[in-house]
Amino acid sequence: MIRLTALLFALSLAPALAAGDYDDLPPDLAKAALAFDRAQVAGDGKALKALLADNYKLVNSANKVEDKAQFIADYTDPDFRLLPFTLKAPVHVVWEVGAVLSAEVDYRFLQKGKPGGVYFRFADIWAKRQGHWQVVYTGVTKLPKP
Asked: Which end of the chain has a smaller Cβ tally under 10 Å, C or N?
């Protein structure tokens, strides 16, 4: 009974973790983008390592530059938990070996049990390398809450 309850709970979270609407993307890119969203919420370091290019850079909402290792450390920190999110006003531009996936997000989290958040637009730059999609760059711009 406990396993069934846990399974039902996990299934109830699935729509919340499926943050983006990627129906307009090539299926392999849509799968990678959804996996990236889910890996962030789950704090899945292994998945993040596979989905981020080795030369990945993030310019975060505080205008600080981070690399792949810092990004993964932030999302796998046991004192940090990203809350499920929904992407708004998406902008997708795709070409054969690259893509820009951008959207607004009300980014909410718990840091050492205390709630925090910021509203922003991000732009993930994706590259298809050796048949696999990876994020190579993310830019974040703070926005006023709607």
From this structure: N
